[in-house]
Amino acid sequence: MKKLVSLLLAAAWMLCLAACGQTGGGESSAPPAPETGEGASEPQEAASETPPEEQPPTTAETADSKTLVAYFTWAENAAYLAGDEAVDALASPSVVVPGNVQQLAGWVQEETGGDLFSIRVTDPYPSDWDACLERANEERGAGIRPELQETVEDLDQYDTVFLGYPNWWYGAPMALLSFLEQNDLSGKDVYLFCSHGTGGLAGSVEQIAEAAPEAVISDNIFDCYEEEAPSSQQAIQAWVENLGFSRAEPFQESEGTSMAQIAITWGENQVLCELNGSPAAHSLLIQLPLTIEVEDYSTNEKIFYPFTPLDTADSPLAQGGAGTLAYYEPWGDVVFFYGDYNENPGLFELGQVVSGEDLIPRMSGTITIEPVE
Ligand SMILES: Cc1cc2nc3c(=O)[nH]c(=O)nc-3n(C[C@H](O)[C@H](O)[C@H](O)COP(=O)(O)O)c2cc1C
Predict the structure, then answer these.
(1) CA dist list (Å): 272 to 234, 247, 267, 356
(2) Who's near 331: CB < 8 A, 6+ residues apart?
(3) Which pLDDT belongs to residue 248?
(4) pLDDT digits (tens, 9 = 90+) for 25-40
(5) Across the chain, what does the average pLDDT equal?
């Protein structure tokens, strides 16, 4: 039944496209999935990040500057919120609370310690999916800039702006363009994050750059498929961390040494590893704590894929031997070896297991990795 509803919705979307003469402006993106995600085609990528083309600022460089986390989400711009009687009575899928971008923004705020600003229109959008699509499409077609409830107070205090939005009709919601035209981001470092259906980022980045021509918009963009958004906390916080905007140093290097211990826990089991202080080990450490799925590989490896690739510059190659924690750069996976292995020019040593080595062959499912205080 749900599938049927989804198919009908997809058909409705295509009819709407035809009726409104919307072609996607020549963009190659697929049409969006319905809010339920049901019937949507495969996501283009779960949580992809564009590789950085610039050197990210360090935490120290950003210590004195203030960060704004501004975002637009349907859930905070809907006439009636889910759960209201008016919405329950509607036949088609309606707005879901909390919104995807709303959740992402909350995690960015938590990680950066910045100020949160929800972009809100004065005339809320319908809570009904089809009606919301229709109004958004009309606004795009007519180039309307919806009126906003407020502008950011004392914008000058912010050097950095994280800007979150959903893809609406192959681009940024028009309310985001209102925001950019009313809040001058010239000279500020801007980091974009977006949640979307199968259409991906589509033309949104170009529209944002056009609306804020003097803003310094990073190429390193976080985007995730709508169904992945609710479980993207670690991914987006790792992205923020990697940009150098995390408010807390995740571990303390002790005086004179950069060695650190990490604990890997699943169920009642715990393995301790001593990291070797290399840049590769450090870039794993700054992603912790991490809760992640571990997989079997071959007959001597347990592996997992960190959210952000490790920096292997000046890091030692793994020398062989059970009990090694290593990073295989070509595949981007971290490996616990519980049997012998061969040296490889793409295999970097991160450290050695110091206790619980006999448990590694039984490591499975979800593991938690955290620094040992
Ligand atoms: C009016 C409207 C238009 C949308 N248009 C697109 C689109 O063109 N492409 C796409 O991939 N997703 C599209 N979507 C899906 C949203 O981008 C996606 O569900 C997003 O995760 C919603 O985030 P939010 O819950 O914070 O609003 C659209 C959603 C709405 C409500």
Answers:
(1) 22, 27, 15, 7
(2) none
(3) 56
(4) 223 333 333 333 322 2
(5) 81
Q: Which atom of ligand 1 is nearest to the CA of 165?
A: 26
CA of 272 to the centre of ligand 1 (A): 43
Alpha helices (H) along the chain = 2-20, 59-62, 85-88, 100-112, 129-142, 174-182, 204-211, 233-243, 279-285
Ligand 1 centre distance from Cα of residue 365 (Å): 32
Q: Is any atom of ligand 1 closer than 6 Å to the C-beta of 133?
A: yes
- Report the predicted TM-score, pTM, of the whole model to 2 decimal places: 0.62
Q: What is the dihedral of CA 249, 113, 47, 174, to 10 degrees?
A: -160
Q: What is the rounded CA–CA span in Å between residue 325 and residue 172? A: 43
Domain boundaries, the chain: 64-243, 261-371
CA of 181 to the centre of ligand 1 (A): 22
- Fold that domain 261-371 belongs to in CATH: Cyclophilin (2.40.100)
Ligand 1 pocket, mutate which of 36, 108, 226, 228 (most atoms under 8 A from CB): 226
Helix (H, G, I), strand (E, B) or coil at 181: helix
- Can you name the CATH fold of 64-243? Rossmann fold (3.40.50)
Q: Whose C-alpha lies nearest to ligand 1, atom 2?
A: 168
CB 324 near ligand 1, within 6 Å = no
Q: For residue 294, what pLDDT is reported?
A: 95
